[in-house]
Design brief:
By secondary structure, this protein is α/β, with parallel strands linked by helices. It is 36% helix and 24% strand. The structure holds adenosine-5'-diphosphate and magnesium ion.
């Protein structure tokens, strides 16, 4: 069986500065892989190379054995890659239900414009997705009126609307406190497990990382410092050093 995702020798430079420097790793079925590392380590840039928002200078990305490293984002989405970004990407003036419906229309291969209407099937499906992410009761609330945590769950709902076979989540709990982060990630993990979708996520809070990841990659200065089980990463003196005594 092909691995879910394979990154091989990914390099991305901005001028003389190399943000991602020869990164290789593999994601397997059933995994919840955390990517951690100090600010500026290259995590978001690496995600952009995986999702297609940026193209690598060298290296490749394989999705289910197929090379996608030079495909645009929507073609990767069509091949099963679902994602959410560090910066919120829902339509603020649209309701939760409308946001998910737009996702479903786009996933169905339709172009979307302000006059598009979801089909009855899509409306039903949108309701089912909102129920999965715990937002059934808030379906008519505009995204901008929702709490930060609810907006992140809505983004997960929009990501699920593309029927992903892998979810890439860049700081899904950005801006949340510790308890809210924990609850949000627990919910994401439960959904991913019940849908049998492997996830790759970036998360700041180490306690949250060590509770939910099945494997951890530590990225430092654009390179993989460690790729190991959470317990091994927690004990690794190189990781502590990389964070310069930040509380991990
Ligand atoms: P992280 O997500 O780990 O905090 P990023 O991938 O956002 O790190 O950034 C890694 C480094 O690359 C940072 O030093 C950042 O300033 C730099 N960088 C990111 N995007 C660009 C860009 N478009 N142009 C120039 N430098 C960039
Ligand atoms: Mg980032």
């Amino acid at each position: 069986m092909n691995p879910v995702l394979q990154a091989t020798g990914l390099v991305k430079s901005f001028g003389a500065f190399t943000a991602v420097n020869d990164v290789s790793f593999t994601v397997h079925e059933g995994e919840a892989l955390a990517i951690i590392g100090p600010n500026g380590a290259g995590k978001s840039t690496l995600f952009d190379l995986l999702t297609g928002r940026k193209t690598p200078d060298t290296g490749d990305v394989k999705l289910f054995g197929e090379s996608v490293g030079h495909l645009p984002p929507w073609k990767r989405v069509a091949r099963g890659l679902g994602r959410s970004f560090q910066v919120s990407s829902v339509f603020p003036t649209f309701t939760a239900e409308e946001n998910v419906q737009i996702g479903l229309m786009l996933a169905g291969g339709k172009t979307w414009n302000a006059f598009s209407r979801a089909t009855e099937t899509q409306k039903e499906e949108a309701k089912a997705i909102l129920a999965k992410v715990g937002l059934a009761a808030k379906k008519d609330v505009p995204a901008s009126d929702m709490s930060y945590g609810d907006q992140r769950m809505l983004e997960l709902g929009v990501a699920l609307s593309t029927r992903p076979r892998l979810l890439l989540l860049d700081e899904p709990t950005a801006g949340m406190g510790r308890e809210e982060s924990r609850e949000c990630l627990a919910q994401i993990r439960a959904i991913a497990a019940s849908e049998q979708i492997p996830i790759v996520f970036v998360e700041h809070d180490m306690n949250v990382v060590f509770s939910f990841a099945t494997r951890v990659i530590v990225l430092v200065a654009g390179q993989v410092l460690v790729d190991a089980a959470p317990e091994a990463v927690r004990k690794d003196p190189r990781v502590k050093e990389a964070y310069f005594g930040e509380d991990i």
